[in-house]
Amino acid sequence: MMDSIIFTHKDQQYKTVFFETFGCQMNKLDAELSLGLLQEEGYRIVDKADEADVILFNTCSVRQHAEDKVYSHLGALKKLKKRHPEIIVGVLGCMAQKDGEAIFKRMPHVDLVCGTRMFSRLPELLLSIRNHGSHVLAIDEDQIVNVKRAVAYRANMYQAFITVMRGCDNFCSYCIVPYVRGREISRTIADVKEEAQALVSNGCKEVTLLGQNINSYGKGLSGNVTLGDLLSELNDLDGLERIRFVTSHPADMSRDLIRTMSRLGKVCEHLHMPAQSGSDQILQRMRRGYTAGYYCDLISYARELIPHIAVASDFIVGFPGETDEDFQETVQLMEDIRFQNCFIFKYSPRTGTKAAGLEDDVTDEVKRARNLKLLELQKGISLEENQKMIGKKVQVLVEGASKSDSNKLSGRTRQNHIVIFNGSADLVGRLIDVMIHEVTDLALYGKLENYP
């Protein structure tokens, strides 16, 4: 292992940390919050595990595949830990909350298991391990989550996630989130607005409001507070250019919220609202609380009021009891709605959920075939819809160099299209107009007018 830079802070010595995140946007924000806390305590962040004195994995439990990846990464660290026992290895987040002590039994070289409500105590937990030894378990289910953040630490200074609520009360039959994230808790509008203002003062131009079930924002707050009220307040913030929110549950999505979106100029014309299935029978078994017809009616209403809105979705294939007919109804829904993009997953049982008691009767072969069919269908739809953008001028918030071509810039439209185009570094963070001349199913390609 390379020599580490040691910082002296508050009469304690701190070293370097490697941090890898799996899963959703909430996990990514938790990573930002955690790393901000560690930086304030003197830690230096490194991008290679074998250069770190603390190795942390922020985990996801929504799919088995995500957990398998984490255990694979942990297993690969056994030799490193044996050579350098002073290294601290930690598992954070949803998998830590779900598996707890079992992680130590499966991976004895892990020192820390820190649940979803305890990441704000990360510096003191690491200090405890350094002073008193390993196998620290911190998964208090009653702990109030501290979302205080160092606003200057984020992946892109012009964009930021803001947690506005945590937890979920829906208990969909396949979903582990209510068990690892807890019940719904909302932050006050004043608290969220204060954080947004601090971010804007630090250069942020676009915020994405996060909640496991964001349409239920306001639950538990005094008065009849809604997500629409929060959006209206943030829409008035000087310097803030764009507002997004995820993730929407169809059963809790209201027409009133859609009307609010249509009248607020800073709220982007983009809606991520997972359908999960097009079959009413499967939706009922999933305990989703709506029908495919209800979902389609919501989308029709949104498109009536917000003509240029782009809609994204999630789908699960191979849910217990899903027949060929059920799957074909999902195919039909995708063809009817014509989503901008979709995340498509093969069903995997999650211990502790209602669906875990159902027979997992769809074979892996069928799951793979259905997954591939939906992916190919969505790819075709995305390409056809993107082709309609050729010859049009779009507004882009420039994010930085393109990952696929460092000589070009990348940004996003209000509808969340990725746009790649020619330009110089001084454009980063600006809102500019780009003329689209070429597309793929994943991105739009354009040119700046009057630019060499």
From TrEMBL:
Cofactor(s) listed: [4Fe-4S] cluster
Alphabetical keyword list: 4Fe-4S, Cytoplasm, Iron, Iron-sulfur, Metal-binding, S-adenosyl-L-methionine, Transferase, tRNA processing
UniProt function note: Catalyzes the methylthiolation of N6-(dimethylallyl)adenosine (i(6)A), leading to the formation of 2-methylthio-N6-(dimethylallyl)adenosine (ms(2)i(6)A) at position 37 in tRNAs that read codons beginning with uridine.
Gene3D superfamilies found in the cross-reference section: Methylthiotransferase, N-terminal domain, tm_1862 like domain
Major location category of this protein: cytoplasm
Self-association and partners: Monomer.
EC number: 2.8.4.3
Domain TRAM positions: 387-450
HAMAP family, per database record: tRNA_metthiotr_MiaB (MF_01864)
PROSITE patterns registered for this protein in UniProt: MTTASE_N, MTTASE_RADICAL, RADICAL_SAM, TRAM
Protein name: tRNA-2-methylthio-N(6)-dimethylallyladenosine synthase
Positions that bind [4Fe-4S] cluster 2: 168, 172, 175
Localisation: Cytoplasm
Organism: Candidatus Brocadia sinica JPN1
Catalytic reaction equation(s): N(6)-dimethylallyladenosine(37) in tRNA + (sulfur carrier)-SH + AH2 + 2 S-adenosyl-L-methionine = 2-methylsulfanyl-N(6)-dimethylallyladenosine(37) in tRNA + (sulfur carrier)-H + 5'-deoxyadenosine + L-methionine + A + S-adenosyl-L-homocysteine + 2 H(+)
PANTHER family on file: CDK5 REGULATORY SUBUNIT-ASSOCIATED PROTEIN 1, MITOCHONDRIAL TRNA METHYLTHIOTRANSFERASE CDK5RAP1
Ranges of residues in domain Radical SAM core: 154-384
Family, per entry: Belongs to the methylthiotransferase family. MiaB subfamily.
Residue stretches making up the MTTase N-terminal domain: 15-131
UniProt: [4Fe-4S] cluster 1 binding residues: 24, 60, 94
Cofactor note: Binds 2 [4Fe-4S] clusters. One cluster is coordinated with 3 cysteines and an exchangeable S-adenosyl-L-methionine.
InterPro entries: Elp3/MiaA/NifB-like_rSAM (IPR006638), Methylthiotransferase (IPR005839), Methylthiotransferase_CS (IPR020612), Methylthiotransferase_N (IPR013848), Methylthiotransferase_N_sf (IPR038135), MiaB_methiolase (IPR006463), rSAM (IPR007197), rSAM_horseshoe (IPR023404)
Pfam families: Radical_SAM (PF04055), TRAM (PF01938), UPF0004 (PF00919)
Lineage: Bacteria, Pseudomonadati, Planctomycetota, Candidatus Brocadiia, Candidatus Brocadiales
Leader peptide range in chain numbering: none
